[in-house]
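We were asked to recover a plausible sequence for a given structure. The inputs and outputs are reproduced exactly as logged, with field labels preserved.

PROBLEM: sequence recovery
POSITIONS: 551
GIVEN STRUCTURE:
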């Protein structure tokens, strides 16, 4: 006889949307279980290599779709373990975006001012700090100098990094073995566990069904620790509240697969997907021009040759984050490091006479990879992604032992999106090619289509039921007791790294989830301090709680 477990709250996923909600609900007295598809690794488990079975292949989920590929975290801590820890707040104009629907995408209740106290809670919890120029790496300094040479501005990016621990090893995407990255493994998750939450790695949620009491039964498979195509078990857990935070590539798939049992899903589930308008360019620098034009030197006879030294984005140019500019013409440009693999495969040869992403000329530029500088564009796309029918299990058909899958996302960039990319590409060339500093080409889309490391909006909040899957409290329309708090809830592209906004929205959603849990008989309160005990963020947020718990 199969026994179904019970809990008050079941959280699917342990990234920002899952860890934050799990902490607050557990701290408030609820019984909380977190199911995470990936492994639970610590600092000593993070490897500095790309071998199959290393942390690099175990903690990533790379899903290739039709016209779009998604790269995200697949581990306890989710994207916070593999991201570059850049934590800017979204520009004010983002919340007024209209996009393809021709009217404001965001709920009326959410704007930059309304989100500010929740941003502050996240900044206190991780914490987030602004780097000074002394902490900027060679590549960040070079990009800043190139921007200045081109008459542009550049600034250090706010980050969740302990600078005293950071060794500038540039292995952030494989997890930080020096515990310098302030991932969720060091704040919300251990605090949730301390308050009784149970985190179960290698548990992949498949679907939800509704119980007679109005609660939900969550069906999961247990995934093999080495071969993610293999399931070693299955089970069910009953919960009064379910929080979906599996990521924008997985949350809509779970809901689509649940529709035959739960009933029709809102139209916007699996639609309006945004890749955050992302695009990458590689500049291949002329070392002599770096010295002559920018006056830079490492002090050892080399001007730069330092692509491999540092950490993710340190410096960004925000000149185009201007709310007076037309929609689809606003974007940020960040200096970035992508490790060998994705970066070396997708980078193209400038001015190639033959193939652009392979061949003899490509071999030559790869030989000079230490003189590369990667520029990351985050722009305004048109929410043109749509999810097709869900695969038999999980969010993708696994085509390798780890990491790689074929997913149901379909993406055809519109003229608006393409125009924004073209404007950003031209800006990158103007900055990086000026006076012969370098040669620049965007990454190819011929191999895996467009690509994003920040998938968003596939189950988004909004006021209009015809274009949003969730209300402004993050509750799934027509299915009370199911909440979504990951990147899929963000209505559209943010023009900056989205982690800070995803986290702030999750913080903002908690009071409404607490109220819903109480209405379902769960004894839980709201008002926990920051995971480390700090209370200034809580004091600032508490005045907003009544408006979030009563319609």
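RECOVERED SEQUENCE:
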């Amino acid at each position: 006889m199969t026994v179904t477990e019970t809990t008050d709250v079941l959280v699917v996923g342990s990234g920002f949307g899952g860890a934050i909600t799990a902490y607050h609900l557990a701290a408030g007295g609820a019984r909380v279980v977190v199911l995470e598809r990936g492994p639970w690794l610590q600092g000593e488990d993070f490897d500095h290599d790309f071998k199959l079975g290393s942390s690099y292949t175990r903690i990533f989920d790379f899903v290739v779709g039709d016209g779009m590929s998604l790269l995200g975290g697949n581990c306890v801590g989710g994207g916070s373990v593999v991201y570059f820890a850049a934590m800017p707040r979204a520009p004010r104009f983002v919340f007024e975006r209209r996009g393809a629907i021709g009217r404001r995408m965001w709920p009326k209740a959410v704007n930059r001012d309304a989100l500010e106290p929740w941003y502050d809670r996240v900044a206190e919890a991780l914490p987030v700090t602004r780097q000074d120029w002394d902490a900027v790496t060679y590549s960040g300094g070079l990009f800043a100098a190139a921007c200045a040479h081109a008459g542009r501005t550049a600034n250090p990016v706010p980050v969740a990094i302990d600078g005293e621990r950071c060794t500038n090893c540039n292995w952030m995407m494989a997890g930080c073995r020096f515990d310098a990255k302030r991932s969720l493994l060091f704040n919300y998750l251990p605090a949730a566990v301390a308050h009784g939450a149970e985190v179960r790695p290698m548990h992949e949620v498949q679907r939800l069904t509704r119980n007679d009491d109005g609660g939900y039964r969550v069906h999961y498979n247990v995934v093999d620790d080495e071969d993610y195509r293999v399931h070693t078990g299955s089970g069910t857990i009953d919960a009064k509240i379910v929080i979906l935070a599996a990521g924008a590539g997985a949350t809509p798939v779970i809901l689509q697969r649940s529709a035959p049992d739960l009933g029709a899903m809102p139209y916007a589930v699996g639609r309006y997907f945004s890749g955050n308008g992302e695009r990458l360019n590689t500049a291949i620098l002329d070392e002599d021009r770096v010295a002559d034009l920018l006056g830079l030197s490492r002090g050892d006879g080399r001007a730069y040759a330092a692509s491999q030294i540092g950490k993710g984005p340190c410096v960004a140019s925000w000149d185009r984050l201007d709310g007076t500019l037309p929609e689809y013409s606003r974007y940020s440009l960040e200096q970035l490091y992508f490790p060998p693999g994705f970066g070396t495969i997708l980078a193209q040869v400038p001015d190639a006479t033959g193939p652009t992403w392979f061949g003899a000329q490509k071999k030559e530029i790869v030989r000079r990879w230490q003189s590369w500088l990667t520029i990351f564009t985050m722009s305004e796309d048109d929410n043109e992604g749509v999810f097709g029918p869900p695969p038999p299990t999980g969010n993708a058909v696994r085509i390798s032992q780890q990491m790689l899958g074929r997913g149901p996302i379909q993406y055809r960039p519109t003229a608006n999106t393409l125009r924004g990319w073209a404007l950003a590409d031209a800006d990158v060339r103007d900055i990086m090619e000026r006076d012969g500093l370098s040669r620049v080409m965007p990454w190819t889309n011929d191999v895996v289509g467009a690509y994003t490391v920040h998938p968003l909006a596939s189950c988004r909040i909004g006021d209009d039921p015809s274009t949003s899957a969730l209300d402004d409290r993050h509750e799934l329309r027509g299915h009370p007791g199911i909440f979504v708090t990951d990147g899929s809830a963000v209505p559209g592209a943010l023009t900056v790294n989205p982690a800070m906004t995803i986290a702030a929205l999750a913080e903002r959603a908690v009071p409404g989830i607490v109220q819903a849990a109480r209405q379902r008989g769960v004894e839980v309160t709201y008002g926990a301090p920051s995971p480390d005990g700090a209370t200034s963020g809580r004091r600032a947020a508490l005045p907003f709680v009544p408006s979030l718990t009563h319609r």
